[in-house]
Amino acid sequence: MSFDYGQRHRHELDAASKIAKVFGVAEHRVVKIDLRQFGGSALTAAGIAVPKDRDEKQMAAGDIPITYVPARNTVFLALALAWAETIGAFDLYVGVNCVDYSGYPDCRPEFLRAFEATANLATRVGVEGTGHFRIRAPLLHMTKEQIICRGLALGVDYGLTHSCYDPTPEGLACGRCDSCRLRLDAFSRVGIPDPVRYVL
Q1: Any residues with CB less than 8 A from the CB of 136 and at least 6 apart, and which?
Q2: Mapping DSSP to helix (H, G, I), strand (E, B) and coil, where does residue 160 land?
Q3: Alpha-helical regions (H) of 32-133
Q4: End-to-end C-alpha distance for the chain, whole angstroms
Q5: Beta carbons of 43 and 67 less than 8 angstroms apart
Q6: What's the CA angle centered on 123, arms 70 and 98, to 5 degrees?
Q7: Where residue 123 falls among pLDDT bands split at 50, 70, 90?
């Protein structure tokens, strides 16, 4: 499940679609919602600039960055929960990570535990005791380098992926936003070039 939530660009959604096809995913559902109506994030509001050229010390300062989209993962997980309950699935996988310097409050283990508890309180199967929902976050405690290596071991073509917060209209990664810098640094530490095309 991917989300067209009013983000600045569709390149990440296009990448998700390509990857789903490569791996033969039975159904890749793109859910459309519009978080732009609330604003408050550089990823959804045109008038807020995406931070560029920050070093790891600045990213690790502990402040929640302006690229945080208010309640995004709560909304995403709630919609995934609705689909899961409908089709009888009990494991919800989410690709959040709390090791890098994002500082997003909805990427923390305590949030995922709280959402899992909510999922089992707020659903028919939870109340009737016919199932138990589990939130699975396999990347949660992995470093970016570990994530890259695990993906390579699983056959991920990172040339199909997209991480940039502020790409060009053609989809070239900026190389300067927090996401690009963390990604480039991780590929460098792994010792292989990042196959994604960058402006720089």
Answers
A1: 91, 92, 93, 94
A2: helix
A3: 56-59, 72-87, 109-121, 124-128
A4: 32
A5: yes
A6: 40
A7: very high
Amino acid identity of residue 124, one-letter, is R
Element (H, E) at 138: none
Structure tokens at 39: 């604003």
The sign one gets for the Cα dihedral 147, 10, 52, 103 is negative
Task: Give start and end residues of each alpha helix (H) in 141-196.
Answer: 144-153, 178-190
Q: What is the DSSP letter of 50?
A: P
Provide the 3-class DSSP secondary structure of residue 52. Answer: strand
Runs of H (alpha helix) within 37-177: 56-59, 72-87, 109-121, 124-128, 144-153
- Mapping DSSP to helix (H, G, I), strand (E, B) and coil, where does residue 36 land? helix
Residue 176 tokens read as 């300067």
DSSP tag of 139: T
Residue 136 near residue 89, CB atoms below 8 Å:
no
State pLDDT tens for residues 149-178.
999 999 999 999 999 999 999 999 999 999
Burial of 24 (0-12, 13-18, 19+ CB in 10 A): exposed
**pLDDT tens digits for range 74-114:** 999 999 999 999 999 999 999 999 886 678 999 999 999 99
Residues facing residue 173 across a β-bridge: 198
pLDDT 10s digits, 22-38: 999 999 999 999 999 99
Q: Which amino acid, one-letter code, is at 186?
A: A
